[in-house]
Amino acid sequence: MNRRTVIGGLFAAASVPALAACGGGITSLDGQGSGGGGGGSSKNGVTIGTANFTENQVLGYLYAAALEAAGVKTKVRPNLGTREILIPALEGGDIDLLPEYQGALLHYLDPKSKATEEGEMQNALAVALPKGLQILPYGLAEDSDAFVVTRETARKYKLTSLADLANHNGKLVIGAAPEVKKRQVGAVGLKDVYGVEFKEFKSLDSSGPLVKGALKKGDVDVANLFTTDTDIVDNHWVVLTDPKNLVPGQHVVPLVADRKADSTVRKALARLGNVLTTEQLTELNRQVDKDKKDPQDVADAYARQHGISKG
């Protein structure tokens, strides 16, 4: 996921009108999305795929809970891999639905896109999506990419923003998931936008134990994490600011195949998107990563507590 800038604030239900003003937010449960028409049917069930990190798995099970409550049979295939695997699987019919992130998906489909505002990205995504796929309205919750250093590294190199990294070209090591090396919201964009050149790129995982362990040990100087990762606050790590807006906005958005995008699916996912906030999503991540709870159990408990599921 390569999601964005530091979260500027937590959205609550009262934020819905503001989102709607952006042009792509959820204003009602009509479930109308962008990029493709209706005509699909969820009668025979929906298969949900997820990426290979905690939050996306939790979101996949939340999607399942919302759909099951609406009478749609679901199957979740978690931890399938990166976007490079998931999008072809969605196009090919191996999965029907996946939780996505606006900016990351847009940069995957259109690396040259300059859209950063939520409504602009929603419109750009509608144009860039492959035939047969569509995005539904984006939700309240947001998770962004963050480039993080320890407090010790920040003091040593006088780092507060991504721009400061260029003052130490050839000296610092970055750790991230392998695909970040070739992504605009990653090593490519850091060089193009900020002129940053690292001593080494270490291929690790997506905001997981490998990259966070390497940051703690000093094996990497900079780590690509997600802003909903509770380890950032727990370890007092420093999130480098992004003055040139390399990292776009990253609201959670369902990506679905036309063949399954009927009104039942649209309304169920719109309802979930209207309820789930960034703060809540961060807490769900904490329960899985820190408390070692099962992602499905965490998602099901949230769905029951917030009236998303029937149980």
Automatic annotation (TrEMBL):
Top-rank lineage group of the source organism: Bacteria
Annotated PROSITE patterns: PROKAR_LIPOPROTEIN
Classification via InterPro entries: ABC_Gly_betaine_transp_sub-bd
UniProt keyword terms in alphabetical order: Signal
Signal peptide: 1-20
Gene Ontology MF, one: transmembrane transporter activity
Pfam families reported for this sequence: OpuAC
GO-annotated cellular components: ATP-binding cassette (ABC) transporter complex
Domain ABC-type glycine betaine transport system substrate-binding: 46-304
Protein's UniProt name: ABC transporter substrate-binding protein
Organism the protein comes from: Streptomyces sp. NBC_00119
